[in-house]
Every structure is written in C-alpha cells, then in structure tokens.
Amino acid sequence: MVTIQKNSLKVGKQVDTHHVDNAIRNYKQERWVQNSQRLGKEDSLSVWYSIEELEEFIAMSKEHGADGIKLYFGAYDKDYTDHPLYAGRQTVVLVATKHKESEDGHTNKDLYIQTEEGTSILAYNTGMLCPPFCTREGGGVGVTIFDKGNEGFVVV
Questions:
Q1: Contacts with 89 (C-beta within 8 Å, 6 or more apart), sequence order
Q2: H or E segment at 75?
Q3: Would you kindly state where each structural domain of the chain is located, as residue ranges?
C-alpha cells in the first residue's frame, strides 16, 4: 500500500489585538489619510462579509478544485452605479486559486470556470464597506484621531 502525504498549504497565523491595532494604525497613517484626501471623502477601512456567504464561496471554490483564496486590494470605479456610496472607495476581491509547484517555486493561480457567458474568474466582491456603513458599537479596533488642521478632527 502506498501512502501519499499531502503537504499543508497554510501560510497565515492567528494574531492578537496588538498586532491588529498596529496594522490598522499603520495603514491609517501611511495610506488612508492620503487616499481619503485624494478621493475627497473618507475611503473605506474595512469590508465585511457574513460567515454564511464566505462558507458558500469557499464551498463553490472547492467544488471547482480551488485550494486557496487570494484577496486582491482594489477600488470601485468613480462612477460605480451598483452602489453609488462605494464609488471610488477601496475594496477587497476574493479570488479562488489553485496552488502550483514548479521549478521556479510556488504560485497560486487564479481559478477560471465556465459559465453561461463563457470563461470567468471565480471571484467574490461587494461586501459591506466601512465607511460608508460603519457601526461604532463596542469601540472596534484601531481607533485613531486625526487632526485635520482648519478642518477639525476626525475619529476613525
């Protein structure tokens, strides 16, 4: 009997509150302020999806042979009409992937499937952006106060 050992593809790890607060604070100070100024409104800081929809996307991805999910940073078109409040704001797009090993190393290829319209990437997007849809209950993580000079202060 031949036993085939499957190598784990895990690359991430669970992190603590300090790590999350630090990453969010760095992002706000090094990118978010400038993005918001250029956009002319507060850019999004997070994207929320329900566990139910993530599980459905993961199950669909597995059905098509995926073994991973890649998160692409992106931005909606400035004239995005599906959700006008999202126009111009950043987002994340989840894309099903298949891990490949070659002589050049490891890669995670975006997964394409056949649909009624033809070949398409297997992806998921349009979660709930914050801003514009934020709740401040419980304080959240990574709260930062920015001094906008003559324009006052903003808490994010």
A1: 39, 41, 43, 44, 75, 76, 129, 131, 132
A2: strand 68-75
A3: 16-33+134-156, 46-132
Provide the residue type at 38 as one letter.
R
Count of other CB atoms within 10 angstroms of residue 16:
8
Give yes or no for a contact between 33 and 146, defined as CB atoms under 8 angstroms apart.
Answer: yes
In sequence order, the β-bridge partners of residue 24 are none
Q: Give the DSSP letter string of 92-149.
A: EEEEEEEEEEETTEEEEEEPEEEETTEEEE-EE---EEETTS---TT--S---EEE-G
The DSSP letter of residue 150 is G
Q: Which stretches within the chain are classed as H helix?
A: 17-27, 33-39, 51-63
Q: Do you know the residue count of the chain? A: 156
Give the pLDDT confidence of 28-67 residue by residue, as tens digits.
999 999 999 999 999 999 999 999 999 999 999 999 999 9
- pTM of the predicted protein model: 0.80
Tell me which amino acid residue 25 is. Answer: R
Scan for tokens 């324009």, then name that residue. 151
